[in-house]
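Hi R.,

Here are the chain sequences for the assembly we discussed:
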Amino acid sequence: MSDVEDYAIVVEDLVKKYGDLIAVNNLSLKIKRGEIFAFLGPNGAGKTTAIEILEGIRKKTSGKVIVLGKDIDKRKELDQIKKIIGTLPQEFNTHLNLTVKENLRFWSRMYGKNIPIEDLIALVKLEDKANVQYKNLSGGLKRRLGIAISLVNDPELVFLDEPTTGLDPRARRETWEIIKGLKEQGKTIFLTTHYMEEAHVLADNVGIIYKGEIMDIGTPTELIDKHGGANKIIVRCNDQETRDQIYNILFEMGPLENDDGDIVISAKKKGSISKVVDLLEENDVPYSDIVTQRPTLEDIFLTLTGEILITSTETEEKT
Amino acid sequence: MPEQETFTKKIYLSLRRIYGQTVSTAIRWVRSGPALFFTFIYPIIMILLFGYIFGATDDSLYTLNYLNEDVYQVGDNTYAFNPANQILQNLGLNNDTLAESLNLKLVQASIETSSITYNDWMKNNDIPYLLVIPSGWSAAVNESKVNATAPQALIEYYYDPSYTSSSIVQSIIDNVLQEMNIAEFSIPTVVDVVASTTPNREGLTYIDFIVPGMIMVTISTSSMMGMVSMVTEDRQSGKIDKYSASPLKKWEWALSHGLWHTCTSFAISILSVLTGWIVFGFQLSTIHPLMIGVLIFGSMTFTGLALVISRFVKKTEAAMAATMSFVFPQMFLSGAILPAEIMPDFMQTIAKIFPLYYVSEAMRNMMLESTFHLAWVPLGITIGMGVVFFTVGSIITDWRKE
Ligand SMILES: Nc1ncnc2c1ncn2[C@@H]1O[C@H](COP(=O)(O)OP(=O)(O)OP(=O)(O)O)[C@@H](O)[C@H]1O
Ligand SMILES: [Mg+2]
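And here is the predicted structure of the full complex:
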C-alpha cells in the first residue's frame, strides 16, 4: 500500500485500441511523486492517447491506472483525482474574448481550491497582458496562459501535453524555467514532447514511446549509458585521400564514416582517445580536428527504434 | 456535523461553477458583436416582415357566403322588419361601412339545394363558411315574439374548421345575433352550428398570431444554433477536455447554458412584444407568471435538443448543418408563423411533431387572454419536453472520449 502511496502514477498493462489500431500497447510505468516525467516520442506514438487515459478523460481498453493513490475506474475516486490534478491538452484554446485575468477567474471557479490569480499571472510572467483578451496573445503567451490555467487549483500532479510545441527556442526555454519552478514547489509533472533536448533538460525520468510501446524508461543519463553506447570520437578531415589514410590507420578500431564525411570511432575502451591521437600523430596525418561526443537521446532513439527522431530544437515545427 | 458541512460546501461549489459558466458565457456573448446583433435583430425583422406581408392581406374582409331561403315574405308589407333581412343588414349587406367594421363581405350563394348538400358545395367551391337562413325563419322569429312556448328560431352556420377565420366569422355572427336578441326580439335565437367546433380564437388577427410565434421561433433558433456551435467549438478548442478533467459536472455545465438561453429568451420576448406593439398595435392582454415557465422550459427543450444533436454530430460545420435542417422546416411547418389550421390535415399532423408547435401554442394562448384556457395542454407538453430533452441531452452528452 505504501508502495502505491509513494507513486504519483502507477500504470499496469494499459492497452488502448482504436478499432484495429493499437495506440497504446501493454504500457506499464511508475512515476514517483515530485518528479518530472517525460514521454518522448514521434508523432502518432500514442503520447496523447496515454496521457488522456491517465487524466481520466479517455476510455481505456484494458489495464489498471492508479493516479495519486486512487483508481480511475472508481467514479468516486476519479472525482477526487479531478480536484487535485491540472491538465494542459495538446490542442487547447481558452475563451477567445475573455482576458487573461477573466479566463483565470473562470477556470478558478470550476475548482474548490484556488491560488490567487495574481500569483498565477506572475508565475507565467503575464503581468503586462493581464487585461488583454486571449485571442490577442501570441502563440507562446497563449501556451503560457494554458499552463497557468492548469495550475488554478494548485494541483499535486500536472499533465502537460506538448507544452512547448510550436514555440521559438527562447519561449521554450522560458517555459522550461516555469516547469522547473513547479517541480521545486513539490508538484509532479507528466509531460509529453518530441524534443529530445526538452526531455533531457527537464525530465528526471524519460519514457521513450514508439508505436504505442514503451521502448525503455530511465533517467536521461541511464538511457544514454545503456543504449547510447560509448562516446564517439570524430576525426574531421578535408579530402578523400586523407580520409582513406585515416580509415586505414585506424582500421583495427572499427572506424565508420558519417554523413558529413567524418570518421567516427566508438570509444568503447579506456584510452581510446589517446590511442587515436597517438596513431594519427605517429603517421603524421593532416586531419583537421578531433572531437569527442557523448551520445544523445537522439542516438538512443535510433538504437531503440531504428528511426530518426523527427525534431530537434532547432528545426522548427509549425502548428 | 461534518457530513452537513461537506454537503453545504458541495452545493456552494456547484453553484459557484454554474455561476462561473453562466457569467463567462454572458461576457463572451456580449463581446461577440454579431451574435448579439443577430439574436436581437432577428425577431424584429421577422415580425416586421411577416406582419406586413400577411397582416395586410389578412386584414381584408372575410367573405361570408349566405343563403336566404326565408323568401316567402318578400313583398310583404313587413318586409323591412323581416328578421331575415334584418340580420343580413346587420351583418353589413348593402352597407359597406358596417361590413368593413365587422370585417365581413357578404356574398349571396347560389346553391342548387336539390342536387347538392351544403357541405359538398362548400367543399367543391373551397368555401370556408356559409350562413343559411332556413325557410320560415322570420315567421318562427315573429311567432316566438308573441308565443313564449314557440320553438327556437334557428339559423345555420356551416364552416370548415381547418380555417382559423371560421371561428372568427362565427363569433361575428354570434355577436350580431346577440345584439339583435337584446335590442329587438327578446327571444332565444341561436346560431345553429353544423360541423364540429374548433378551438375558438375570438378576434385573433395575424399580428396576435405572429408575435408569440416569432418569439418562440427566435428562442428555438438561437438556443439551438447557439448551443450547438458553442459545444462543438468548445470540443475543438480542448475546453471540453479540461471540463472533463475538472470537478465540473455535465449537468452543471448544461444547466448554466440553459440558464443563459433562458435569460436571452426574456430579452427576445420583451423586444418582440415591443416591436409588435409599436408597429402593429399588438396588445399583450396579460403578463402571466406562467409565461416565464414557457420561456424556461422552451429554452430547456431546445438546449436539450442541441445537446442531443451535438452528441452525435461532432464537427462544427456538420453539426450546424444538422441543426439548420431541423430549425428551418420546424419554423415553417410547426405552425408558429403560419397557422397550422390553414394547412391540409396531414400537414397539421406534421406540425404536431415539432416541439415548436407546443411551445408557441402555449405562449400564444397565454398572450391572448380569451384563449388562456387553451394554454394548459401545450404548457404541460412544453414542461414535459423541457424536462425530458434537457435531461436526456445532459445524460447522453459524453465528455469521456472513446
Ligand atoms: N480518436 C481516434 N480515433 C482513431 N485513431 C486515433 C484517435 N486518436 C488518435 N488515433 C491514432 O492513435 C495513434 C496515436 O495517436 P496520439 O494522438 O496518441 O499520438 P501522439 O503521440 O500524441 O502524436 P502527436 O505527437 O502527433 O501528438 C495515431 O496513430 C493516431 O492516428
Ligand atoms: Mg499528441
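Residues A 47-48, 90, 161 surround magnesium ion (ligand 2) (CB under 6 Å). The mean pLDDT of chain A is 86.

Let me know if anything looks off.

Best,
T.
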